[in-house]
Amino acid sequence: MGRITSNRQDAGRTRGKKNSIPLPDKNTCAAPGSMSSASRSARTNVCGYELPSNAIPANSRTRRMQELHMQTSRAIPVLTQLLGRTPTVGDLAVYLRLSEKDTRDGLDSRFAYQTRSLDQPASDDGERELGHLFGGLDSRMELVPDRHALAQYVAGLPARDRSILSLRFAQDMTQREIAQRLGISQMHVSRLLGRCLKDLRTLLLSQQ
Asked: Is the predicted pLDDT of residue 75 greater than 50, yes or no?
């Protein structure tokens, strides 16, 4: 009987040497909630298959994130003192017996507890506040459907009409310059432009 106990102690010492990071004892040093996390993990894993996150109720995911946040927050100062440096994600995962994904989730969830005032200066000179950096409503967004429809109608025009519209409104050329470019009279350019705009206006109004 004494030999069996000795062998177990030797095995424990051998296993301990393989890990450079001391693991917390399950019964005395486990972070609060770790046992409930293990139980919940067992319930959400069947035959080694992990259920997708969207299959777990939202309130359960929220509690899980809170537990991961507490565990990683408490482990960082402990490992910093033990290792003499800032622990990596891998260090924390080994110490807490978590996957690296869960460890990252715990680290990222800390941002949910760190809020900033909108009155806080957004630059060193203090001229602008953080709230001033948020955009407002863009009235041009209402024109997006019309612009999309217009592009389709223009694409269906003859090549010369498309060229005239491009020269006039994209390149900001005058009717005289367009006439010289195309080798036609300025009056002809005016008639073509008027007809194109009238047809496009009719098509747009018919969609409303």
From this structure: yes
